[in-house]
C-alpha cells in the first residue's frame, strides 16, 4: 500500500498536485484550514483540474489539521509566508521519519521549516509549472513545466519519485537544488519587481534593458558572494531569454499586486537584500529597487513584507 500524500494548502499548486496524484489512483488527503473550509469543500464533489479546456473532478478526501491520523508524507503547498505557521499546526501529527516536500518559491521559508522540524526530511522543490484557481476547489493548469526536487543534506533520491512518475508530474531529482533556487530567485528579482513598478508584461522590460543589466550584475555579485557561482553563470543572458520567452505574460508578483494579494517579496528581493547586508555587500540598485517596490506596495495598501 502506498504512503498517503497529505497536501497542505488547497490553492493552485496544491490542487494541481492533488488531482494528478488522485488521477493515478494514489492515496491523497487535502488538509484544509478549519471546519468551515472542510464543510464548504465537502458540500462539493471534490477537486477539479482543468487541463487543455477539459475538466475532471476527483473526490479527494478532505480533513482538518486536528484529524488524529499520523502524517508520513506532507506536500507543503502554501505561500512562503504561510509555510512555517501552517506546518506548526501539524507538527504533532508528523511521524518520526516524516518527509516534507516544500514547494515554496524564493528562499528563507524552507530554512525556517527545517529549523522547526530537525527530525524530518525536508525536500526542497523549484517548479516552472503554472496554475491558477478559477473558483473554489478548481485549478487551471496554465503552463506545463518541470519540478526539480532535492535535499542538500541527503543527496539520495526518495523511492516515492515513482509516484510522481505514475502521476505524470514532470520532475527531476537535483543534487544542486540550492543553486536552482538561488538562480530562480535571481531571475525573479530581476524581472518581477520591475513589472510591478512599470505596470507591464514581462516583454516590456525589453525597453528597460540597461536597468535589467545593472540588476543582473549586482545579483551576480551577490550569488558569487553567497557561494553560488554556478547560479550566477550568464545570468543576464538567461534573464533576457526569459523576458523574451514570457513576453506576453504578467509576472506572478504583478498578478499578486493586481489582485490585491500579499506578495512573496520577503522571500525574493527581501531575502536577496538581507543576504547582501549580511555579507556587507553594497548593491545600491537592488536596495533601491526594494525601497521602490515597498513604496508601491504600501501605496496600494498591501503588506510591505
Ligand atoms: P495559493 O495562494 O494558490 O495557495 C496556497 C493555499 O494555502 C491557499 O489555498 C491558502 O488558503 C492555503 N493555506 C495557507 N495557510 C494554510 C493553513 N494554515 N492551513 C491550510 N491551508 C493554508 O498559492 P500557489 O499559487 O499554489 O503557490 C504556492 C507556492 O508555490 C508559492 O510559494 C508560489 O510562489 C509557488 N509557485 C506557484 C506557482 C503557480 O503557478 N501557482 C508556480 C510555481 C511556484
Ligand atoms: O517565475 C516567474 C514569475 O513570474 O514568478 C517568471 C516568469 C520567471 C518571471 O520572473
UniProtKB/TrEMBL annotation:
<dbReference type="InterPro" id="IPR050838">
    <property type="entry name" value="Ketopantoate_reductase"/>
</dbReference>
<feature type="domain" description="Ketopantoate reductase N-terminal">
    <location>
        <begin position="5"/>
        <end position="152"/>
    </location>
</feature>
<feature type="domain" description="Ketopantoate reductase C-terminal">
    <location>
        <begin position="176"/>
        <end position="289"/>
    </location>
</feature>
<dbReference type="InterPro" id="IPR013752">
    <property type="entry name" value="KPA_reductase"/>
</dbReference>
<keyword id="KW-0566">Pantothenate biosynthesis</keyword>
<dbReference type="InterPro" id="IPR003710">
    <property type="entry name" value="ApbA"/>
</dbReference>
<keyword id="KW-0521">NADP</keyword>
<comment type="pathway">
    <text>Cofactor biosynthesis; (R)-pantothenate biosynthesis; (R)-pantoate from 3-methyl-2-oxobutanoate: step 2/2.</text>
</comment>
<dbReference type="InterPro" id="IPR013328">
    <property type="entry name" value="6PGD_dom2"/>
</dbReference>
<comment type="function">
    <text>Catalyzes the NADPH-dependent reduction of ketopantoate into pantoic acid.</text>
</comment>
<protein>
    <recommendedName>
        <fullName>2-dehydropantoate 2-reductase</fullName>
        <ecNumber>1.1.1.169</ecNumber>
    </recommendedName>
</protein>
<dbReference type="InterPro" id="IPR008927">
    <property type="entry name" value="6-PGluconate_DH-like_C_sf"/>
</dbReference>
<keyword id="KW-0560">Oxidoreductase</keyword>
<dbReference type="InterPro" id="IPR013332">
    <property type="entry name" value="KPR_N"/>
</dbReference>
<dbReference type="InterPro" id="IPR036291">
    <property type="entry name" value="NAD(P)-bd_dom_sf"/>
</dbReference>
<dbReference type="Pfam" id="PF02558">
    <property type="entry name" value="ApbA"/>
</dbReference>
<dbReference type="Pfam" id="PF08546">
    <property type="entry name" value="ApbA_C"/>
</dbReference>
<comment type="similarity">
    <text>Belongs to the ketopantoate reductase family.</text>
</comment>
Amino acid at each position: 500500500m502506498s504512503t498517503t500524500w497529505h497536501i497542505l494548502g488547497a490553492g493552485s499548486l496544491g490542487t494541481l498536485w492533488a488531482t494528478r496524484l488522485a488521477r493515478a489512483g494514489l492515496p491523497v488527503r487535502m488538509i484544509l484550514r478549519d471546519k468551515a473550509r472542510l464543510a464548504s469543500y465537502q458540500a462539493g464533489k471534490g477537486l477539479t483540474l482543468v487541463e487543455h479546456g477539459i475538466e475532471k473532478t476527483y473526490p479527494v478526501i478532505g480533513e482538518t489539521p486536528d484529524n488524529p491520523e499520523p502524517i508520513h508524507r506532507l506536500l507543503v503547498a502554501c505561500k512562503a509566508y504561510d509555510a512555517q505557521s501552517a506546518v506548526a499546526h501539524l507538527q504533532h501529527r508528523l511521524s518520526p521519519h516524516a518527509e516534507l516536500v516544500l514547494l515554496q518559491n524564493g528562499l528563507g521559508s524552507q530554512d525556517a521549516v527545517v529549523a522547526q522540524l530537525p527530525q524530518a526530511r525536508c525536500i526542497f522543490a523549484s517548479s516552472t509549472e503554472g496554475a491558477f484557481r478559477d473558483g473554489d476547489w478548481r485549478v487551471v493548469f496554465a503552463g506545463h513545466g518541470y519540478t526539480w526536487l532535492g535535499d542538500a543534506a541527503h543527496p539520495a533520491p526518495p523511492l516515492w519519485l515513482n509516484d510522481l512518475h505514475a502521476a505524470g508530474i514532470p520532475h527531476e531529482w537535483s543534487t544542486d537544488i540550492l543553486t536552482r533556487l538561488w538562480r530562480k530567485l535571481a531571475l525573479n528579482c530581476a524581472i518581477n519587481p520591475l513589472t510591478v513598478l512599470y505596470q507591464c508584461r514581462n516583454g516590456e522590460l525589453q525597453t528597460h534593458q540597461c536597468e535589467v543589466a545593472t540588476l543582473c550584475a549586482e545579483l551576480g555579485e551577490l550569488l558569487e558572494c553567497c557561494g553560488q557561482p554556478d547560479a550566477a553563470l550568464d545570468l543576464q543572458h538567461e534573464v533576457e531569454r526569459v523576458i523574451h520567452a514570457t513576453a506576453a505574460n504578467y509576472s506572478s508578483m504583478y498578478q499578486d499586486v493586481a489582485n490585491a494579494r500579499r506578495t512573496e517579496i520577503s522571500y525574493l528581493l527581501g531575502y536577496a537584500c538581507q543576504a547582501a547586508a549580511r555579507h556587507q555587500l553594497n548593491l545600491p540598485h537592488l536596495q533601491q529597487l526594494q525601497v521602490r517596490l515597498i513604496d508601491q506596495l504600501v501605496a496600494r495598501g498591501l503588506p510591505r513584507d
